[in-house]
Design a protein that fits this description.
heterodimer; A: 324 residues; mainly alpha; MetI-like fold; two-stranded antiparallel sheet; 72% helix; B: mainly alpha; 11 helices; 75% helix
Chain lengths: 324, 295
């Protein structure tokens, strides 16, 4: 490893007369380094361009932009409150729905399923991640939303809606689309990311630990609960944060099913919007140089900050796994 | 786990307690197992449901004119030819631009920057970009290439897709290069080869199947991207291959058709959705089998 590190660090190799190594090495190293630097420039460029683009809106509305719930293109008053609320709420519900299922998938794939089944099932779950988000949008809009409107929501409104304390979450007309449907679609979309991370870290638990627990007479579930989960909990949290980061910025699927209304409703079945859905929908109707365009870019900047923080935490939590 | 600490009890009254405990532990285990299997089947049911819906609706709408006619106003038997060609152009060029950059970055991380702080930063940023919302890449390219140059263009779409594929290629390239044993590198250097020849002729060659896998997965990802194209190549209902003008693409056409009130447009959207999903899932499966075959 030390020798390799020395080589990697660019220890000069004795040049030979005919190899042209020095020039070639210099050029190639420069190209690689420049490409590496370009990635940093890219991130910097995204931050700066969104911030500068959104500056007129930040200047006009100040910090209040963050929580003002007004969005009126006619009077040119814009606030991010509703879409930030929608973004965070849909993402959190999606996590709540997706994590138990992802855990079940990972548990099955690492401990329960016979070997011949692991690969095909694992691949199938990963294919869920490959389906383009617009397909989720169409599927959600044409299949899931009618099912929600027809069966799920009326049932929930009649039963859960009557429960004191939490009933207000499940009231209102069953549109089919809305916050909850969007969160459900998001949950399905992020499921494979969380499940894949969990599976990877579960399978890295040293076999000796698990065997010791089995040797003491533990059941499979007790080994998972008492050995595997405590051993991997930091990485598991990292995987969940990764899913959260994905859920925050998902655009097309949400745009189809969230109902697109600029208001905050207490019921989960009410329509709403997210930062990404507002940007995608309203962008076409905003003129170059208008305050609305600036407001949309400012929304983009807020979304970037949100997802950057979440993804950075995720990387931080997963770093031990990445190292080895 | 607490169950394993039970033997401290007096043995006499233990048999019944132990039996009960054993039963409840077994029940807990069975419950956890069944719930996990249920969760896995839920995941598989969703995948199946998406595929069945797509095939059912897509095949009903599928016919030859989808591939031979361009998009037309509702009611006049249009197809998706211009959208498919536009997508192919943008994805091909985006891949052609993004792949070499991504490979160089991955090579930098694996061969030059192991353990360096700058390299760590590049790796971190690249991983953030890998999961960053693609809609923001679209907004970025919009401010960079659309606003200053006075309009939506195919090139802007190409740039957005290239930016999206870069971190995917970076990740696989670095991962694949790190798998190569250092003894191989030492052997090449020991023969007197310059470092760049070692990387290009030996390391890249040993890692090539993994890198191709990554590129295929990247293509699959950008082929279905819709949000970034909304702000860059915009879409176009006429036949166009001019990259300086708004360029049609399959995802954008599906998006606008699926949201339209016209039945024949919605059917075309399903046909397009089936085409794109088959392409994307096909690429994924091809990539995976290529990788597992070569390993």
């Amino acid at each position: 490893m030390t020798q390799a590190a020395a080589i990697s660090a660019g220890t000069p190799v004795p040049a030979r007369a005919n190899s042209g190594g020095n020039t070639g090495d210099a050029v190639f190293a420069l190209a690689c380094r420049a490409a590496g630097a370009s990635v940093l420039l890219l991130l910097g460029g995204i931050i700066v361009s969104l911030f500068i683009g959104g500056l007129p809106a930040f200047e006009k509305f100040g910090v209040e932009f963050l929580w003002s719930t007004e969005w009126d293109p006619v009077t040119e008053v814009f606030g991010a409150g509703v879409s930030i609320y929608g973004t965070v709420v849909t993402a959190i519900i999606a996590i709540v729905l997706a994590v138990p299922v992802a855990f079940g998938v990972a548990f099955t794939l690492t401990e329960l399923a016979p070997n011949w089944l692991r690969r095909p099932v694992g691949t199938a779950v990963e294919l869920l991640a490959a389906v383009p988000s617009i397909i989720y949008g169409m599927w959600g809009f044409f299949l899931i939303a009618p099912i929600m409107a027809e069966y799920v929501q009326p049932l929930a409104i009649d039963t859960l809606g009557e429960v004191p304390g939490i009933g207000f979450l499940f009231q209102g007309p069953p549109f089919g689309t809305g916050i909850f449907t969007a969160a459900l679609i998001l949950a399905i979309m992020i499921l494979p990311f969380i499940a894949a991370t969990m599976r990877d870290v579960f399978s890295q638990v040293p076999a000796v630990y698990k065997e010791s627990a089995y040797g003491l007479g533990c059941t499979t579930w007790e080994v998972m609960k008492g050995v595997v989960l405590p051993y991997t909990r930091v990485s598991v949290a990292g995987g969940i944060m990764l899913g959260l980061g994905r859920a925050l910025g998902e655009t097309m699927a949400v745009t189809f099913v969230i109902g697109n209304a600029n208001r905050i409703t207490t019921t989960l079945f009410g329509p709403g919007n997210t930062i990404a859905s507002v940007v995608a929908l309203e962008f076409g109707e905003s003129e170059t140089g208008s305050l609305k365009l600036a407001a949309l870019l400012a929304l983009g900047f807020i979304l970037f900050v949100l997802s950057f923080i979440v993804l950075a935490i995720s990387r931080f939590l997963l770093r031990s796994r990445l190292k080895g | 786990m607490s169950a394993t600490t039970q033997p401290a009890l007096a043995p006499a009254k233990n048999a019944a307690v132990a039996a009960r405990l054993g039963r409840s532990r077994k029940r807990g285990d069975m419950m956890a197992r069944s719930l996990s299997l249920l969760a896995t089947s839920i995941g598989l049911i969703f995948l199946t449901s998406i595929l069945v819906t797509l095939f059912y609706k897509g095949f009903n709408a599928m016919n030859l004119s989808v591939f031979t006619e361009v998009t037309r106003p509702p009611g006049s038997n249009g197809g998706l030819l211009n959208a498919i060609v536009g997508s192919l152009i943008q994805v091909a060029l985006g891949t052609a631009i993004g792949t070499p950059i991504g490979m160089l970055v991955g090579t930098y991380l694996a061969e030059y920057a192991r353990g360096s702080a700058f390299g760590g930063m590049v790796r971190f940023v690249s991983d953030i970009l890998l999961s960053a919302p693609s809609i923001l890449i679209g907004l970025f390219v919009y401010s960079l290439l659309v606003l200053p140059f006075g309009g939506f263009s195919g090139w802007a779409g190409v740039a957005a897709l290239a930016i999206i594929i870069i971190p995917i290629v970076v990740r696989t390239t670095e991962d694949m290069l790190s798998l190569i044993p250092n003894t191989l590198r030492e052997a090449v250097i020991g023969l007197g080869s310059p470092k760049w020849k070692m990387i290009v002729l030996v390391c890249w060659r040993s890692a090539i199947s993994g890198i191709i896998t990554g590129v295929l997965l990247g293509i699959a990802r950008i082929a279905g991207e819709t949000a970034p194209l909304l702000f860059t190549s915009l879409g176009n209902n006429a036949w166009s291959t001019d990259l300086t003008q708004p360029l049609p693409s399959l995802p954008i056409t599906i998006y606008s058709y699926a949201g339209s009130p016209f039945q024949d447009w919605i059917e075309l959207a399903w046909a397009g959705a089936l085409v794109i999903t088959l392409a994307v899932l096909g690429l994924n499966i091809a990539a995976r089998s290529l990788f597992s075959g070569k390993k």
